[in-house]
Amino acid sequence: MKKFTFPLGRVMEFRRMQARVEEIKLEGLYAGLRAIDSREAAVTQQASLAEKALKSQASVTGHDLELFSSYQLARKDEQKRIDKVRAECRKRIEAQLAVVTVKRREVKLLEKLKEQRFEKWEKEMSKEIDQQAEETYLSKWNAR
Fold first, then answer.
1. 72 within a domain of the structure (yes/no)
2. What are the φ/ψ torsions at residue 126 (nearest 5 degrees)?
3. pLDDT for 78-132, tens place per residue?
4. Is 61 inside any structural domain?
5. Within a domain: residue 30?
6. Owning domain of residue 19
7. Which of 12, 52, 103, 115 is placed for a possible disulfide with 110 were both Cys, Cβ 3.0 to 4.6 Å?
8. Quick one: pLDDT at residue 68?
9. What's residue 137's pLDDT?
């Protein structure tokens, strides 16, 4: 009786490693997206604080209003930049998701092939054991 071996075992491990590498890249992209969201929240909070500070002043000068207007324009520009970076990040995430899906599919294919080969080996092993048992029984029966 021979031991079960899967000749593509090393290939399967390599594919698993590749899939994990791609998953790590995807995790990095998601971390980047979270950083973008954090940056946007910080910009929004700063804008809210600036507006509250302006409203809480007893007297507002024209210069204060001009500075606030410039700040609002800069904040809008920053928001546009954030939106653009977020869109680019989401595109990279979608592309990376496609890569991860392909890599996972390759691993599953090899795993399924291994299962099929193992089932075939088990059937052959059972046949061999049954055949040996039968031969042993017949040899003992003929010896009587």
1. yes
2. -60, -40
3. 999 999 999 999 999 999 999 999 999 999 999 999 999 999 999 999 999 999 8
4. yes
5. yes
6. 9-110
7. 12
8. 86
9. 83
Is the overall model pTM greater than 0.85, yes or no? no
Measured in degrees and rounded to the nearest 5, phi and psi for residue 20 equal -65, -40
Say if residue 144's pLDDT is above 80. Answer: no
51 falls within a domain: yes
Number of domains in the chain: 1
Fill in the amino acid letter for 117: R
Cα of first residue to Cα of last residue in the chain, in angstroms, is 28
Tokens of 40: 């946007």
